[in-house]
Amino acid sequence: MNIVVASGKGGVGKSMVASSLAILFSREKSVVAVDCDVDAQNLGLWLGVKKMSSGKTISVSESAEIIHEKCSKCGRCAGVCKSGAIEKTAGGFKVNPFLCDGCGACNLVCPENAIEMKKVENAVLQKAKTKFGFEVIGAQLFPGNAGSGKIVAEIREKAGKSKKEVTILDAPAGIGCPVTASIVNTDFAVLVTEPTPSGLSDLKRVLCVANHFKIPFGIIINQRDINKEFSRKIGKFAGKNLLGKISYDKKVVESIVELKPVLENNGKAAGEIKKIFRKIKKELKQIA
Ligand code: SF4
Ligand code: SF4
């Protein structure tokens, strides 16, 4: 069972919910938690992990490289490069690796066979064992690199190999490639929002992604009491898909500061998350 936690908007409590669900499921099933935010991982922190250990590097793209000895300086490569990655220099032509997206067009048009496509190391796999007995898996994108969607696909594949009963995927914010890669082929999407106009707007955007892939979903309104009127509005929008509401709770802030999972502080939010967990289990039974 793959359960993705997504939100569209950042900072609405997605990782808090994902980490709590992983802990709660781990009391009943074998679990693996996957941090799909390869730009800025933090699921481990919510699970009390101080340091993730690095493993293999991940390569999901290529970059062009000019073999200067073979180059006749005809300039065709610069002419076809839509990314503007090939610059003319005093000595000939050179590729700017930060602009090259590895499309290979220059390699195809070069009459001297002077362009090679080289693999780029885009990220490093990371993992840690939580004190709850399950693993959290993620990856750290190297600065200036692209391909975060493909990297998410790689870490999901790795998590799949662990053959756990439940995989909790913590999606990044937004609706771009890594979010799509986090949502596709999941069994249920938990969509977290906050009662603000941007929370609702971004919820609708991420809902489009979930609906596109026909993923059953439920909605959680976090910090319900910061805007009661908007909270009601989103509740109405969610209708029967509302999984529950979580109150603003200072104990959550304390948890983040102390690197302590929210469920361990026994605050109001922790109780509400447990109630939501029971509702999610009921939803899962219906779709199983
Ligand atoms: S691989 Fe594509 S993006 Fe990179 S330099 Fe060649 S044409 Fe430009
Ligand atoms: S197309 Fe090939 S030969 Fe022409 S400038 Fe580019 S690298 Fe050199």
Shape: elongated
- In spatial order, strands of the major sheet run 3-8-9-2-10-1-11-12-13
How far the N terminus sits from the C terminus, by CA atoms, comes to: 9 Å
Query: What hetero molecules are in the model?
Result: iron/sulfur cluster
Q: Rg to the nearest angstrom?
A: 22 Å
Number of E-state strands? 13
Uncertain stretches: none
CATH topology of the largest domain: Rossmann fold
CATH C-level of the largest domain:
Alpha Beta
Topology of this structure?
Elements: E1 2-6, H1 14-26, E2 31-35, H2 43-46, E3 53-58, E4 61-66, H3 76-80, E5 86-89, E6 92-95, H4 105-109, E7 115-120, E8 123-129, E9 135-141, H5 148-161, E10 166-170, H6 177-183, E11 188-193, H7 197-212, E12 217-221, H8 228-238, E13 242-245, H9 250-258, H10 268-287
Parallel strand pairs: 1-10, 1-11, 2-9, 2-10, 11-12, 12-13
Antiparallel strand pairs: 3-8, 4-7, 5-6, 8-9
Helix pairs in contact: 1-10, 5-6
The site of one iron/sulfur cluster has 13 residues, from helix 3.
